[in-house]
Amino acid sequence: MKNKDIILTLIITIYNPQYYEIKNWLNFKNKLKEYNDIQFLFLIDNPEINENILNLIKKEKAEYKMYEKNHGKFYIVKDACDKNIARGLFIKICDPDDLIITEHLLNFANWLKKLKSYRDYLILTSHGIIKTGYHAEENINMKKIQLKTFGGAPINCNTVFSRAIIKRFKNKYDKLSKSSDSLISVNTLLDPKTIYIVADQSKWFYIYNWRKGISSYNLFDYNKKKLKLKYKNLFLDNYRYLNILKNMQKEINNIKYVNFPTKYDFITVNNSLIKGKFSWFARICYITKIYKIFQKINISENDWNLFILFKCYFFQTFKIKRK
What we know:
By secondary structure, this protein is α/β, with parallel strands linked by helices. 42% of the residues lie in helices and 13% in strands.
């Protein structure tokens, strides 16, 4: 199949999924097997994945790539785009436990065909969240929004990217996983060629499972010690993401549409730091460094004064989670 024949690639990134989750995605793929312009691609970021899951993917003759070690979501998505393993003009990054509405997906793919192929796009729903400056191509069934304000940042569950944008990213950020969605959005916003489009929310095809970092079933699969380690890794991943943003401060401050990091980023690092396997001293040291990052980039509704810092110390000392 030629690349130009594929309008949209759904990349399902998997590390340690449940069997039924992959079964769901294979059912979606088989239901749409007659539609050659949609590609389902499994990227396996775990060489020790459950053999039954791998055999299921092979049995259904699904496209997949197995990586020799855990690189993280950002790396494997960019790698698949760079090497034309992901062949669609547009990319949607998916989690194994999420769902799609196949009828809406077909309608959405038909909309994508009406876009000019030589332009690059970031497409999201009306709840998905850039500040101001939307515009859409004319004569397509998309919702044109101007000077609308939404809080927060565009995240993976609401976004479809032109593959060409991802190929232009300078770095692969090996080992970055949980924060990959946000960093992909940051890099997309930094691309001056990007056109922002807001799709009609009623026809959006993707149903996101809001897990806030760790799947609900993991709470039952892991004992207390392992769960603490899981939250520790979640914190360290987000901490690395924040440091990457700090190093991109000049470019980020030139983005007119959105502020990074977001309040959600701070809540994530605060709560995962509390739940993770860290001593009180380590938590205080880390929260001080995080405060300085937010203060330097100066991006949220807070002024990041000393009072905020003392509140951070209070939350960490008494292990108070933010909401």
